[in-house]
Design a protein that fits this description.
498 residues; alpha+beta; binds NADPH dihydro-nicotinamide-adenine-dinucleotide phosphate; 15% strand; ten-stranded antiparallel sheet
Length: 498
């Protein structure tokens, strides 16, 4: 495999040279297909024409089911602090600098959707580390709508389009949310100011999930990542966003690229919440429930380093559309946690990439690690990399093929107490806190001020026009559970206007 700089590895297109077929043979015309006579049939043997049309017919990769509309840029991650007491990950050691690809996206919109929709933003990072790729596939919110991957397809169906008219529907969304009360924290966050960022630069990024960090002594910590924007938080009012959706649907993409091109590089300071392994058992909420935050009063943010984006893509399709991020891409010193959404994503992300980009998607330029890849997987569509021919295609072998390292135990993917071995569907009994409302209540009542609450009420009411009973009454009830006053204000405002 190549050791080229991942940012620089696109071969530049030659200028002022002859147009050729994909096989490299010059073509006779860019403008005219080959006919027999001036009005005759077109020749199937005009290979330049066939090559051009056939490739055009295939130039879309399937759109991502979620996070389809995205924008990306390259940059660098600098470790400015010493967190070696918590993780042995090589790229997190003091002074390390690692090339990074970042992709920001909306969740529900299709590839051509407006950037300024109220929606969580994807905040996906690929670190090209010297120990393999590490992906942090987060969002701009610290929580999520659901906490078990088994509900994810249903949640996304409710965000997408109705089967009959192919329209998006707030009736569907509120139906799903109000029947899934674990969504309340994320929904409260979404309808607040930060649910509609003014740019990708002016929003934070969160792992949302809890992960495990493992230090050189084998000690384990539960961690959450917070990428805090150095630009300051910015948000759009609903009216501003609605206007921009019509006048400049690419508003966020343009903003990102313009600032980078102008040398005004956006940056984020990575800060961590770190919980010693043993404290998880008795923490006041289940620390692996992605609908909950860990209070920063209990686990204050510990600085680690700085992410700076300084290069826009040279080719959007190759470098951004074909980028495949997955929480399954881990490196030594980082492990998973019992978060059931995370464990579902660890399967689902590479699965969807194999469907979208093919079995060899890791060989595409934005996905190739900067280290050697040595294994016995081979062939499949669009295979580009291959082992030295002296290396057998199987293991064990008598040749000089790579061998696994038994000293790396299964625990390097993360280790935790399963609490019994009976088949079980539910939440850990010791954390049986179906308290869906306390944390969103604190957000709405203590973090937001009066003006922010008024905007929240207006943002919610603006989505209720098409919502029918019994869902409508459930919406009022849902918000009253979060905050009595806010719920009453939503109901009153709706009834005053309908
Ligand atoms: P803190 O007072 O320590 O933290 C409050 C957090 O809320 C800060 O991260 C702050 O970000 C963020 N925040 C401020 N305004 C908004 C807004 N309009 N929408 C969303 N987030 C906002 O308290 P706790 O850690 O105890 O958390 C209290 C509540 O804050 C939680 O219930 C949760 O809803 C929310 N929250 C918590 C986070 C966490 O990881 N603990 C992260 C984000 C939100 P900043 O410092 O940038 O202003």
């Amino acid at each position: 495999m190549t050791n080229e700089d991942p940012i620089e590895r696109l071969r530049p297109a030659p200028h002022n040279s002859a147009t050729t077929t994909a096989a490299g043979a010059p073509v006779a015309s860019d403008d005219f297909s080959l006919q027999q006579g001036k009005q005759g049939y077109i020749g199937l043997h005009d290979v330049g024409l066939i090559d051009k049309l056939a490739h055009f017919d295939r130039e879309r990769t399937p759109e991502r089911v979620v996070h389809a509309k995205g924008s990306g840029a390259f940059g660098i991650f600098d470790v400015t602090e010493d967190v070696s007491a918590y993780t042995a990950a090589d790229f997190l050691q003091p002074g390390k600098k690692t090339p990074v690809l970042a992709r920001f996206s909306t969740v529900a919109g299709e590839k051509g959707a407006a950037d300024t929709q109220r929606d969580p933003r994807g905040f996906a990072l690929k670190f090209y580390t010297e120990e393999g790729n590490y992906d942090m596939v987060g969002n701009n919110t610290p929580v999520f709508f659901i906490r078990d991957a088994i509900k994810f397809p249903d949640f996304i169906h409710s965000q997408k389009r109705t089967s009959d008219t192919d329209l998006q529907s707030f009736h569907m969304r509120w139906d799903f949310w109000t029947l899934s009360p674990e969504s309340a924290h994320q929904v409260a966050w979404l309808f607040g100011d930060r649910g509609l960022p003014s740019s990708f630069r002016e929003m934070d990024g969160f792992s949302s999930h809890s992960y495990q960090w493992i230090n050189a002594k084998g000690e384990r910590f539960w961690v959450k990542y917070h990428f805090k924007t150095d630009q300051g938080i910015g948000y759009l009012s609903q009216a501003e966003a609605d206007k921009l959706a019509g006048s400049d649907p690419e508003y966020h993409r343009r903003d990102l690229y313009q600032h980078i091109q102008d040398g005004d590089y956006p940056s984020w300071t990575l800060k961590m919440q770190i919980m010693p392994e043993a404290e998880a058992e008795n923490y006041k909420v289940n620390p692996f429930d992605i609908t909950k935050t860990w209070s920063q009063k209990d686990y204050p943010l510990i600085p680690v380093g700085k992410l700076t984006l300084n290069q826009i893509p040279k080719n959007f399709h190759v470098q951004i559309e074909q980028a495949a991020f997955s929480p399954s891409n881990l490196v030594r010193g980082i492990g998973f946690s019992p978060d059931k959404m995370l464990l579902g994503r660890v399967f689902s992300y590479p699965d969807t990439q194999r469907h979208r980009l093919g079995a060899n998607f890791e060989q595409l330029p934005p996905n190739r690690p900067v280290v050697d890849v040595n294994n016995y997987s081979h062939q499949g569509p669009a295979a580009m990399e291959f082992n030295d021919p002296s290396v057998p295609t199987y293991v064990p072998n008598s040749g000089n093929g790579p061998t696994a390292q038994p000293e790396l135990s299964a625990a390097d993917l993360g280790r935790w107490e399963p609490h019994g071995d009976e088949p079980y569907r539910g939440y850990p009994l010791e954390h049986e806190d179906d308290d869906f409302w306390s944390q969103p209540h604190v957000l709405v009542r203590e973090v937001m001020d009066d003006a922010a609450r008024e905007r929240l009420v207006s943002n919610v009411v603006g989505t209720l026009d098409e919502v029918q009973e019994p869902v409508l009454s459930r919406v009022f009830e849902y918000w009253k559970n979060i905050d009595g006053e806010v719920g009453a204000a939503i109901e009153k405002s709706y009834k005053d206007n309908h």
